[in-house]
Model the fold of this input.
Amino acid sequence: MRNGVLFLLLLAAGAAQAETAEVYLLKEKARELVRARLKDPDAAKFQKLEPHKLENGATIICGEVNSKNGYGGYAGFEKFFSTGSSVRFKADSPSTFEGVYQAVCSK
Done:
């Protein structure tokens, strides 16, 4: 009995690791896409990187990045979301970004 429980725990951990690897790759791609849009990509500080599943099965990575402005100081954390092939910031579409971010990233 004890060995059976241990086996099931190890099996569940293996399945969780496979999902974690997929999410890890999506987070890395999101970081890469965000850095490509920054003036000083090496100074980017990320926080709150979280995966969110959409109804169609796709995973969106939501997060915040703090980057340096033109004066060399940090500008404060800015929200973004990434599909894995693109990234969107509030400045890209100010009128719709917040609604989309709330609908997708606040689940």
